[in-house]
Structure formats: structure tokens, C-alpha cells
Design brief:
heterodimer, A: alpha+beta, Aldehyde Oxidoreductase, domain 4, 3 domains, seven-stranded mixed sheet, 19 helices, globular, B: alpha+beta, Ubiquitin-like (UB roll), DNA polymerase, domain 1, 2 domains, two-stranded antiparallel sheet, 5 strands, iron-sulfur (chain B)
Chain lengths: ~725, ~150
């Protein structure tokens, strides 16, 4: 595997060997071949020695994308997985843009496989055709007589490794539309035995994260940030900091956004920052506390919503519900949540010999910091380079519309003489207290049921803090005032719900808000699936049967949603719950993927709930890497469960109350005894798997707890409702 | 200060109160032990001191007593430790940032409790956080490693 090499090292090596074969795309979007990286930025690089490297345009935060995209290349060329390595792509939106993000290069929304599936296979297929054509020319036979398997070209009595034909292949014209393998020919795609390419490096300590980078002469920068959003640093006193060995200097960031402390090493930076006395101007600071924010959201739910999300007649829905013999009503509250990836945020900036800037970063959204740095350094885009490194988790945090931490690093660097690289490091306390958060939301849902237990009306009000408004994404995501990320998973539910009406009201932000693994689905799925459970119970019907009744198969989505629901129920032994156990179920579509989960618990809220088993069924189209999909479901379930058990970010007078893992306690190993995942066999195009496992996990648990007693948890986290966990 | 890490002797000119974690990472360039919380609440910095798992963020340079082993020093030449092999076989790592600490904790645990059940594994590993949620595989890998260690 080659990912440990830096991009610069890679380019140098690629340039030095000369006779390489690179497959990329020309400015007009057509596939092209070249012999070195000065001519094009590639998707696949084959060295003169036959070493194949997938150039991965998405970053790797653990979701398995580097392995996934490499699998596509290896499949189409005809390689074993141990014959391919990967490197991360440079920042070049023209070549590496995410088709689902317009003209931006970036990772998010569980889009990596969906937007790369054809592109990376085409690049691999083009490489294969070029190699075979070159071999055929050398041997004087027809390309059709040759095969390429496990890196060996064979046919017409000849056999040679593909590396023998690299130089000749690089002189040929790339095929415009190379033939892709038929799914019946797949040996790697869909193969559960395919291993991740990064397991060994992550098991022997050699994997290099951005935090591990140590450039010669580097300074560590840490920033004293305001406790309240909007407070400004006006001055500082570093007389105590100067006593810290290794302290270099401090400087106020532009607009008083904070005070940067420069030091020779990380420990000195931490000590010096602690010793720094900063004067804050709090005149524009946020001063609200959590109870006030919650009260504002609840007041918004009481009022007529600002936006009619799905265009239906609210009065008609209300009338239908009012006329119904049975009405089920619930109000939900979802707190702020932090992402808290294991690797605290960091990145390093250095000046390059050609007058440019190089950013080393576990970079989720290269185009954002690329543009921001070009502006800050007043340089053309081509003078800014990004070396994407492994990221120790993200869950959305590393992709901010403002490129927040990269901009901090750039400003910290600008204020020096630029002779020394600057590595910006966030502490865990910075991460918990000064970051971006899953916004707080409230839902109020009223459901009318007929005497026969059919839904006759569903009025659903949502109020909370928009993620997209005020960002560069507003124009794309916000339509008619509605931030889609506030209502996704509710207003666009695949269920057939007669008389459904969805309304939205924005409330004022108290913190910076950001997408958090599964974004709006993190709260909409909970409200939808707890309400479905409550409605089923009120109708006197089995929760699975009740849901299936509202998924009659009128659309492909309904059929797929019913498919995972049925599969999860069957595998979990739904309806045959063992003595002393309780089960709850939830199903949800997000990011094009359908997931149903059954939570099985023992105990009860008073004496301690133990999560014995989570059974998951997922339909993500073609399962490219089944083991990666399983791992993502396991992780996403844990992420969803861990936060609803006991996590919330609260504010007192505008300042975050929590500071580190003791009071923002993530899931631990003993919290879920077992997770089982079943993957639906499908020939549909592949969709994402990083996020969709999260939304149904929390409502499945809530529904299991309700089944164990009579406690309906509508205000999160669960431990705030007197629920203890064993 | 003098210290022995992964069988090599080092001399480091650091303040006596600097935590071992930063001595290793910033001074010696040994980056397998990770910074995750700085207050012994996540286990990402776990190393062995004379074979026992300790949190490197909580041991001042002056208090280091005994040989230090980090994730980089676990393999014998090209042969990975049984626990590392089990981690790879079960495809435990996602982002991987915490896994060095997880593996060191498991190595120390299995040296004390050779044949643990789920409950014992959960108790021993509960101080090592993984935000990716790789816990089911950690449990499975510890069991696989235990079986292999016990079969000699």
C-alpha cells in the first residue's frame, strides 16, 4: 500500500520513473491516457514496474472508501487486491469533483460509491484495454485473444505481467467507452472475502494521520477561542505563558476570533495556552442557555409553521385528525450533539519553494479550503496544494462550509514570517466546547386513526436551527425557504400516509451548526418511527404489520423499504421474543439506502436496560464490499445508540457546559452485546453505507424500551428520562 | 531523561512534567500512541510499561519506570503479534486512530487473563473508546487472539 507516501513523494516517484501509465480525464471530460502526472491527474496510476495505484478522490475517515474505489479499479483491470495500492487525489475539482456536489471535490452524504462506481470502473477498464492492445501489438495477435487476470496478460501462447506493456500502452489513445465487465464476471465486487487495504497499517502503527505529521522546523499552534459564539478577543497577557519552556509567541486572530499560541511542541502549546490571559469583548456574544433555546423551539412548534414543506392543506389535515376516533400525539426534543472524532482536528501549512502553499490535512472537502486558502494567501488556485492524509474519523465535522480549521491554520501561518511550517492542533476540549454541532430540533406530530386502525391524517411540525442557511450551500439546498436538511426523512418519507402535512419553522442558532452523521435523518427518523410505533399500538396492530400496510409497494422505494423491514424482522425472530426480552423495530431510507433494525433488550428502564442485540437489514443496491458494509452498519448503529443513551451538548449563558469525554461520554464496548447485519442481494446501482445505519438505531431502541414497559422517550438523551442502562 | 522504547535507548531533553505521550510523539517521533483526550478517558495513547497497559498521557516523563512498548514495537521483526493478526483477520479498524491503543490494551489484558469471556473483555476494554464503533469486532478479535495464544 502506498498511502503513507506524501503526495509530493508520489508525484516525484511517478515523474522519476517516466514510463508510467496514467488514466484520467481531459478537461472535456473524456477518458485519456498519459505517461506522467504533468499531463493529467489520474484515477489510476500504473508504474513501469507494474505497480498499480488507485488515486482515490474521496478521503478515508474509516468508511472504507479507499478500499472500495481500489476494488473497482482492480476488478476492471483484472488484479488481485494485494496487487493494488491507493493514494489520495490532489485537490483538483475539475477532475475529481463529486458528481453529486456540483463542481466541488469532497466526501459526504454517503455519496462516494454512488458517484464513483462507473467512473472508477471506466478508468480501470480503459487501463485494461490499453494494456491488452499494447500486448497484442507486441505479440502480433488480436486483443480479443488475450486475457488479463491477476495482473498477468495471457493468450496465443504468451504470458507476461502487465508491467511489461506499460510504456507502450501509455502511447496509445484511451478508448472513449471501454467495455465494463458484466456483473456475472465480477470476482472482487460483491466478494465478502475482499479485505480492506488499510488494515495492516492500522494494526501495526504505521498508518500516518495528519496529527502524526512532523515537518522539520514546524511550530505547533493552538488557539484560545471564545467560550461564547460571537465574543471577540481584544487583548492578551502572556507573561505567565512566557514561563513555559517551548513557548514562542502569541497573536490575536483577525476580527478577534481568538488568540493563537505558537510553541515548539504540543505540550508546550497546551501549557502556554492555559497560562494565557485573554480579554474578551462579549458585547455581541451569545448569552442564551439551553432551556431558553428549547423553549424557543417549543414555542415555534405551538405556532403555525413558517413553511409548508409538502404543499398540502394543513387545515384539511387538521380537520381529518380532529374527526378521527383515535388521535395519537407526541412532542419530541433533540439536543445539540458534538461529532467528537477520535482524532482531534488538526492540519499543517507550509510554504513551498515555488512560492505556493501546501496544506497537509485529513481533508474531507478539498475544494472548500483550497478556495479559502487561495483567498487568504492571495494566490492563484494552482499555487495551493493539498496533501490529503488519513483522517481519524469525521462524522461530518471535517467538512465545514467555512473550512473553519483550515482557515484558522492559514491565518495562524499568515501572521508568522512563513519560514516555519505551522501545525494547528485542537485539543479534545476545543473539539467539545468550540466546535460545530448537530442542531437542536423539536418535532410535534399528531396522527389520526380510523376505527379500523388506518391513518387518516398526519400533521407534523418541525422546528430547529438550519444547517444550510447562511452558507454557500443555501442556494442549492434551501428551496422556498425550506432547508431540506431540516426535513429530510420526514416530508419525503416513502410511507403512504393519507393526509400528511409537514411544516417547518427555523429558530435562531446559538452555536455553529453542522451536518452530523446522517444529518436531518438523525431526528426525523426518530420522530417518524416512534410515531409509527405509537400509532400501531393505538390501532392495536403489530408494529411490523402496521408499517407494511403503509408500504403497499406502490413505488420501488416502498418495495425496498418493505423488503428490509421484513428481512430484519425475520432474522431477529420478531414476534417470538424470548422471555425477559423486548424488541423494537424501525426502518428508514436515507441517502438512497434502506435500513431496518430490530433492537432486543433485557431489563427495564428503572433497573437498567441492556441492549442484547441489534439486528440490521440493509439494501444499498450492489454490495461492492460486503464486509465494509457490515462494518459501517455496526459502527453507524453504535454511533446512533451511543448518543441517544446519554449525550447532549448544553449551554449556560451561551457557553458549552461539557468539556471532554467524562461529560460527553461516547458508546463503550459493553453497551451493545451483539450486532448482526444482513445485506439484501440487489442489482440496483450502489448507494452509500456510511450514514444510513444510524437513523433507525435510536428509534428501534426507543420502541424496544416502550415495549418493555410504558415509557415513551420523546426528549433526548434517554438517561434524562430516568432510563438507566446496565 | 533516559528511556527505553521498543528495545532502543533514548535520551530526551524534556521538562520532567511533560507526559510520556508527548515525549514519544513530539520528541522521539514515535506516533503510534495517539492523543485523544489528554485525561486518560479514551485509551488512544495506551502503551505498555514493563508489559502492563498504561495511559501515556498521564505518566510524566520523570515518572517513567520500566521499558516502554508502543504499537510499533509489538511485532517481532516481520512477524506481527497474535493480537495484531487477529485485529487484521477481523478487519477491526475503520478510521484506525484508536486501534493502536486498543491492541496494546488487549495485549496487556490477555497476558493477565488468558481465556476471557465477553463480560471480562467488555470490562477490560471499556476504557478504550472507539468513535467508529468497532466494538463487536474488537470483542471477536480478542477472543480469536486468546484462542491462538492458548493453543500455543
Amino acid at each position: 500500500m502506498t498511502h503513507a507516501t506524501t503526495r509530493r513523494g508520489f508525484l516525484k516517484a511517478a515523474g522519476a520513473t517516466g514510463a508510467a501509465l496514467l488514466i484520467g480525464i481531459r478537461p472535456d471530460g473524456a477518458l485519456a491516457a498519459a505517461a506522467d502526472a504533468t499531463q493529467l491527474n489520474p484515477f489510476v496510476h500504473i508504474g513501469a514496474d507494474g505497480t498499480v495505484t488507485a488515486i482515490v478522490k474521496h478521503f478515508e475517515m474509516g468508511q472504507g472508501t479507499a478500499t472500495g474505489l481500489s476494488t473497482l479499479i482492480a476488478e476492471e483491470i483484472g488484479l488481485r487486491m494485494d496487487q493494488i495500492g491507493f493514494d489520495f487525489a490532489p485537490s483538483d475539482a475539475q477532475v475529481y469533483k463529486n458528481f453529486l456536489f456540483g463542481s466541488f471535490q469532497g466526501t459526504g452524504g454517503s455519496t462516494a460509491m454512488a458517484n464513483s462506481f462507473l467512473q472508477y470502473r471506466q478508468a480501470g477498464a480503459a487501463a485494461r484495454e490499453l494494456i491488452l492492445t499494447a500486448a497484442a501489438q507486441e505479440w502480433g495477435v488480436a486483443p480479443a485473444d488475450l486475457s488479463l487476470e491477476e495482473g498477468m496478460v495471457r493468450g496465443a501462447g504468451n504470458a507476461a505481467p502487465l508491467g511489461d506493456f506499460v510504456a507502450a500502452a501509455a502511447t496509445l489513445e484511451a478508448p472513449a467507452e471501454p467495455r465494463l465487465k458484466d456483473p456475472s464476471e465480477f470476482r472482487l465486487i460483491g466478494n465478502p472475502e475482499v479485505r480492506r487495504l488499510d488494515s495492516k497499517a492500522k494494526g501495526d502503527g504505521s498508518a500516518l494521520f495528519a496529527m502524526d505529521l512532523h515537518l522539520p522546523g514546524q511550530m505547533i499552534a493552538m488557539i484560545a477561542r471564545p467560550e461564547q459564539r460571537g465574543a471577540r478577543a481584544t487583548a492578551y497577557d502572556d507573561s505567565a505563558a512566557r514561563e513555559v519552556k517551548g513557548y514562542i509567541s502569541a497573536a490575536v486572530l483577525p476580527e478577534g476570533a481568538g488568540v493563537v499560541v505558537y510553541a515548539e511542541n504540543t505540550w508546550a502549546a497546551m501549557q502556554a495556552r492555559d497560562a494565557l490571559e485573554v480579554t474578551w469583548d462579549r458585547s455581541a456574544a451569545e448569552t442564551r442557555s439551553s432551556d431558553q433555546i428549547e423553549a424557543e423551539i417549543m414555542a415555534a412548534l405551538d405556532a403555525e409553521p413558517a413553511y409548508n414543506v409538502n404543499g398540502t392543506d394543513a387545515a384539511a389535515t387538521r380537520a381529518a385528525i380532529d374527526a378521527a376516533p383515535v388521535v395519537v400525539e407526541e412532542t419530541f426534543f433533540f439536543p445539540l450533539l458534538a461529532h467528537a472524532p477520535m482524532e482531534p482536528l488538526n492540519c499543517t501549512i507550509e510554504a513551498t519553494a515555488d512560492g505556493g502553499i501546501l496544506l497537509h490535512d485529513g481533508c474531507q472537502f478539498p475544494t472548500g479550503p483550497h478556495m479559502a486558502l487561495a483567498q487568504i494567501f492571495e494566490l492563484p488556485m494552482e499555487k495551493i496544494k493539498i496533501n490529503t492524509m488519513l483522517a481519524g474519523g469525521s462524522f461530518g465535522r471535517r467538512a465545514t462550509p467555512t473550512a473553519d480549521y483550515q482557515v484558522e491554520a492559514a491565518l495562524a501561518f499568515v501572521m508568522t514570517d512563513r519560514s516555519r511550517p505551522v501545525k494547528l492542533v485542537w485539543s479534545r476540549e476545543d473539539d467539545i466546547r468550540s466546535g460545530y454541532y448537530r442542531p437542536a430540533f423539536g418535532h410535534r406530530v399528531r396522527v389520526g386513526l380510523s376505527a379500523g386502525g388506518d391513518i387518516t391524517g398526519w400533521e407534523h411540525r418541525i422546528a430547529g436551527q438550519s444547517i444550510m442557511k447562511g452558507t454557500a450551500f443555501e442556494q442549492i439546498v434551501v428551496q422556498n425557504g425550506v432547508d431540506h436538511s431540516s426535513v429530510e426523512g420526514a416530508a419525503d418519507t416513502p410511507y403512504s400516509i393519507p393526509g400528511a402535512h409537514f411544516g417547518l419553522t427555523d429558530t435562531e442558532k446559538a452555536t455553529s451548526t453542522l451536518w452530523w452523521r446522517a444529518v436531518g435523518h438523525t431526528h426525523t427518523a426518530y420522530a417518524m418511527e416512534v410515531m409509527m410505533d405509537m400509532a400501531a399500538k393505538a390501532a392495536g396492530q403489530d408494529p411490523v404489520a402496521f408499517r407494511l400496510k403503509h408500504l403497499p409497494g406502490d413505488t420501488p422505494d416502498q418495495a425496498r423499504m418493505a423488503g428490509v423491514l421484513t428481512l430484519a424482522a425475520e432474522k431477529a425472530g420478531w414476534g417470538q421474543t424470548p422471555e425477559g426480552r423486548s424488541q423494537g423495530i424501525a426502518v428508514h431510507k436515507s441517502f438512497g439506502t434502506f435500513v431496518a433494525e430490530v433492537a432486543e433488550i433485557s431489563g427495564d428502564p428503572e433497573n437498567g436496560v441492556r441492549i442484547e442485540k441489534m439486528t440490521c437489514a440493509v439494501d444499498c443496491g450492489i454490495a461492492v464490499n460486503p464486509d465494509v458494509i457490515r462494518a459501517q452498519m455496526e459502527g453507524a448503529i453504535g454511533y446512533g445508540i451511543g448518543h441517544v443513551m446519554r449525550d447532549r451538548i448544553t449551554l449556560t449563558d451561551g457557553a458549552v457546559d461539557q468539556y471532554n469525554f467524562p461529560d460527553y461520554e461516547p458508546l463503550r464496548i459493553g453497551d451493545i452485546a451483539a450486532i448482526e447485519t444482513h445485506i439484501v442481494v440487489s442489482d440496483q446501482p450502489p448507494t452509500g453505507v456510511g450514514e444510513p445505519g444510524t437513523p433507525p438505531a435510536a428509534p428501534a431502541l426507543a420502541n424496544a424500551i416502550a415495549a418493555a414497559g410504558d415509557l415513551r422517550i420523546s426528549r433526548l438523551p434517554m438517561n434524562e428520562n430516568g432510563v438507566s442502562f446496565a | 531523561m533516559k528511556l527505553t522504547v521498543n528495545g532502543s535507548d533514548y535520551e530526551a531533553d524534556v521538562p520532567p512534567q511533560m507526559p510520556l505521550l508527548w515525549v514519544l510523539r513530539d520528541t522521539l517521533g514515535i506516533t503510534g500512541p495517539k492523543y485523544g483526550c489528554g485525561i486518560a478517558q479514551c485509551g488512544a495513547c495506551t502503551v505498555l510499561m514493563d508489559g502492563i497497559a498504561v495511559r501515556a498521557c498521564q505518566i510524566a516523563a520523570a515518572d517513567v519506570q520500566g521499558d516502554i512498548t508502543t504499537i510499533e514495537g509489538l511485532a517481532q521483526g516481520d512477524a506481527l503479534h497474535v493480537v495484531q493478526d487477529a485485529w487484521i483477520a477481523h478487519q477491526v479498524a475503520q478510521c484506525g486512530y484508536c486501534q493502536g491503543g486498543q491492541i496494546m490494551q488487549a495485549v496487556s489484558f490477555l497476558s493477565l487473563v488468558p481465556d476471557p469471556d465477553d463480560e471480562a473483555i467488555d470490562a477490560a476494554m471499556s476504557g478504550n473508546l472507539c468513535r467508529c464503533g468497532t466494538y463487536p469486532r474488537i470483542r471477536a478479535a480478542v477472543k480469536t487472539a486468546a484462542r491462538r495464544l492458548n493453543s500455543g
